[in-house]
Amino acid sequence: MRVSVFGLGYVGCVSAACLASMGHEVIGVDVNQTKVDLVNDGKAPVVEERIGELVAEVVRTGALRATADVREAITGSEISLVCVGTPSEPNGSLCTTYLERVCEDIGAALAEGARQGGRHTVVFRSTMLPGTCLNLLVPILEKYVGGTAGVDWSELGVAVNPEFLREGTSVRDFFDPPKTVIGELDPASGDAVAALYDGLPGEVFRVPVPTAEAIKYADNAFHGLKIGFANELGAVCHALGVDSHQVMDVFLSDRKLNVSPAYLRPGFAFGGSCLPKDLRSLVHAAQRADVSVPILAHVLPSNADHLQRAVELVERTGKRRVGVFGLSFKPGTDDLRESPLVELAERLFGKGYDLKIYDANVSLSRLIGANREYIETRLPHLAQLLADSVDEVLEHAEVCLVGTRDEAVLSALPHGDGTVIVDLIRLPDAEARRAEPGYMGLAW
């Protein structure tokens, strides 16, 4: 394919050189003439493993050249990769100035008839927040090119294709990616991007444009969280005289719960007899050892904030009769200790809501020991609130809070009768329910 790459920094230079080495005809574009001259001289404008030799080779064979002329680049290509920087503003917000400028330049070139016939696809590799492409960049292109993207554009495609390149190993990462993500405005746009990487390993995900934008942030936030978690745990272990690397070796050997998809699906708050108390104990031990652990110290406050979001969803409805499905902290158990659903019921009851609660695994007459003591302390009116059946709750409720996957509950939930459904677990039919005005999802 004939490809133009806008921005010859780390991402752009690596993308241009690697694509050229795959047999594509690539034009690098940059406003910095020094970078353009370096590439045309067969020299990489960035320091990176293997990139120097790769640039020299593909320039020598004529597969890669560079220019500062946008019109020349658009004329000579059928697909444009936008790899310009998106730095932080002083307040932490995303700077989109360079993205906007490139879209204006590309749009102007396309409007001047720089295309040599056929479809031209603009692909954004730059990291940008969800909504940036459709709400900011596409309108800029529409202004120059005319028409409405995805409706009456037959000659212009748009896609978002985030990169997963680590500085220092970016050439290796390009040829052996963990995944390829294509956020497509339409199937033809996605097809063009997929063809660009044909032959590379790894799973390909073709998703809506905002999903592709969000994935890069999910990756980087989690990577930062993992590093911060390991370092904080290491500091606590050191203060307590424990070999942190031995601890993490055992931790990492668990591929069922620790290094796995477990606990990584958005849903409701956590609770139970272990997680809250162990986090408190660990943070307290760190404080006694004078070790600052801001990540660990904020896990429980973060959990409490998520629970409060559920309260706010109910408040937003303006209705007072509430049914709660699920009470124990985890499905398949009657353990109510530090259950977030108990906490949720307690907060709503304290705010004057008229509650009915159903949990097939919880019966006040069977609660004994610590479980009974806990519920008598936290929600002493539980006996009056518990219902004997799903139907009893449904007959009472204007708002149904669903915190269980009990099939008897799921099959009985109403559709389109005016009952508000507050989904805490992401119901199996959540996608269909999202079109219903009464559906509110905490786990979207």
UniProtKB/TrEMBL annotation:
EC top class, as a word? oxidoreductase
Active-site residues per Swiss-Prot or TrEMBL entry = C274 (nucleophile)
Pathway where this protein functions:
Glycan biosynthesis; alginate biosynthesis
Q: Where does GDP-alpha-D-mannuronate bind?
A: E167, K216, N220, H223, N231, Y263, R265, F268, G271, K330
Q: Which Gene Ontology BP annotations are present?
A: alginic acid biosynthetic process
| A Pfam entry, by short name | UDPG_MGDP_dh
The answer to whether keyword Nuclease applies is no
Molecular functions (GO terms)? GDP-mannose 6-dehydrogenase activity; NAD binding
Q: Which residues bind NAD(+)?
A: Y10, V11, D30, K35, T86, T127, K277, R337
Q: Can you tell which superkingdom this protein's organism belongs to?
A: Bacteria
The UDP-glucose/GDP-mannose dehydrogenase C-terminal domain extends over: 323-430
Q: Which UniProt keywords apply?
A: Alginate biosynthesis, NAD, Oxidoreductase
Enzyme Commission number(s) of this protein: 1.1.1.132
Q: Which family does it belong to?
A: Belongs to the UDP-glucose/GDP-mannose dehydrogenase family.
What this protein is called in its record is GDP-mannose 6-dehydrogenase
Where does this protein come from, organism-wise? Answer: Streptomyces antnestii
What is the phylogenetic placement of the source species in the record?
Answer: Bacteria, Bacillati, Actinomycetota, Actinomycetes, Kitasatosporales
